[in-house]
Design brief:
Elements: E1 4-13, H1 17-28, E2 35-48, E3 51-64
Antiparallel strand pairs: 1-3, 2-3
């Protein structure tokens, strides 16, 4: 049996939602070991002067719970 911790992050990109998700996972993995799953919960954009300025992805990620570590 395993237990997993689920956290939420927001990734941003000027390119795409996919890139925003990649940024979120790669950034989280710098401080979280054994990252297992990323789940996109919400996508949105920021708009400036009538144009998309930034793609944003709200993403849940999970990793195995390791008590005492």
């Amino acid at each position: 049996m395993s237990v997993y911790v689920v956290n939420e992050v927001v990734g941003t990109s000027e390119k795409s939602w996919e890139d925003a998700a990649r940024v979120a996972i790669e950034t989280a993995s710098k401080t979280i070991s054994d990252l297992r799953i990323g789940e996109v919960v919400k996508q949105d954009v920021t708009v400036e002067n009538g144009k998309v300025a930034l793609f944003r992805v709200r993403l849940n990620y999970s990793f195995k719970y390791m008590p005492g570590k």
